[in-house]
């Protein structure tokens, strides 16, 4: 049995085909976004077809590694990479304008500690990233799919949580944030049944943690705060 594609209980960790947690949207590309995809992608872009990655070889060093899933237009990810040059970041996003924008900004700022997939996150985790190789997996403000009939599209499902756990190092963290309270409650429910994780929240704030200072605020989050939306952060550590 290959544990790259199977869990310890024999269940498959490969994503199911069909139901996606996103919908591809067509949109106009700016000059900067087009430049990112055409000129910067060959240097910083990765594909699922590239297969299993040797991360030390990819970045040319041994360093902490963080994956961010669904980085949108990439502002917070670029800020993290620039603020923490000793950490390597891998961003995963399916929407071309966001990928192009991030690549353009990364190039303009001379960042060398950032790589990008324009792919389904489940495919990247299962086919490209080694087991026990990541210090953190970040999932900030994923689509909440609020209608009950669409809940199956939410990325936070038991199979995703288990797949993320296998890619985290012991002690590595899964950090989720949402401004949709019902989705926060869904995350709590899924994590309550997940094995091999420890909630890092203190007793007085559990199951959530206070907003971490290291998580950059996004325009999306700031807009929600102006509208009176709450934000819920959950940080779970992989147990040994």
TrEMBL record:
CDD domains: AdoMet_MTases
InterPro entries membership: SAM-dependent_MTases_sf, tRNA_(Gua-N-7)_MeTrfase_Trmb, tRNA_methyltr_TrmB_bact
A single GO cellular-component term on record: tRNA methyltransferase complex
Ranges in coiled-coil conformation: none
Pfam family, one: Methyltransf_4
Record keyword Protein biosynthesis present: no
Molecular-function GO term, any one: tRNA (guanine(46)-N7)-methyltransferase activity
Catalytic activity: guanosine(46) in tRNA + S-adenosyl-L-methionine = N(7)-methylguanosine(46) in tRNA + S-adenosyl-L-homocysteine
Keywords of the record: Methyltransferase, S-adenosyl-L-methionine, Transferase, tRNA processing
Amino acids binding substrate: 147, 179, 218-221
Pathway this chain belongs to: tRNA modification; N(7)-methylguanine-tRNA biosynthesis
Binding locations of S-adenosyl-L-methionine: 68, 93, 120, 143
EC number from the UniProt entry: 2.1.1.33
Superkingdom per UniProt: Bacteria
Enzyme class: transferase
Family of this protein: Belongs to the class I-like SAM-binding methyltransferase superfamily. TrmB family.
Task performed by this protein: Catalyzes the formation of N(7)-methylguanine at position 46 (m7G46) in tRNA.
Protein name: tRNA (guanine-N(7)-)-methyltransferase
Organism per entry: Modicisalibacter ilicicola DSM 19980
Protein encoded by which gene: trmB
């Amino acid at each position: 049995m290959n544990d790259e594609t199977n869990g310890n209980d024999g269940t498959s960790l490969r994503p199911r085909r069909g139901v996606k947690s996103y919908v591809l949207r067509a949109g106009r590309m700016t000059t900067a976004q087009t430049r990112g995809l055409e000129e910067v992608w060959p240097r910083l872009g990765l594909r699922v077809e590239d297969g299993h990655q040797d991360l030390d070889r990819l970045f040319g060093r041994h360093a902490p590694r963080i994956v961010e899933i669904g980085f949108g237009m990439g502002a917070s990810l670029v800020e993290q990479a620039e603020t923490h040059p000793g950490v390597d970041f891998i961003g995963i996003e399916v929407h071309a304008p966001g990928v192009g924008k991030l690549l353009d900004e990364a190039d303009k700022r001379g960042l060398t500690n950032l790589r990008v997939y324009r792919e389904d996150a489940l495919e990247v985790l299962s086919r490209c990233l080694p087991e026990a190789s990541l210090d953190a997996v970040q999932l900030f403000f994923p689509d909440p799919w609020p209608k009950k009939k669409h809940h199956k599209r939410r990325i936070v499902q038991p199979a995703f949580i288990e797949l993320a756990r296998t890619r985290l190092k012991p002690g590595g963290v899964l950090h989720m944030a949402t401004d949709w309270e019902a989705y926060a409650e869904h995350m709590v429910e899924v994590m309550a049944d997940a094995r091999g994780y420890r909630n890092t929240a203190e007793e007085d704030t559990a199951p959530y943690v206070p907003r971490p200072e290291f998580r950059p605020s996004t325009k999306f989050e700031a807009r929600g705060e102006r509208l009176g939306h709450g934000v819920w952060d959950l940080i779970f550590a992989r147990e040994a």
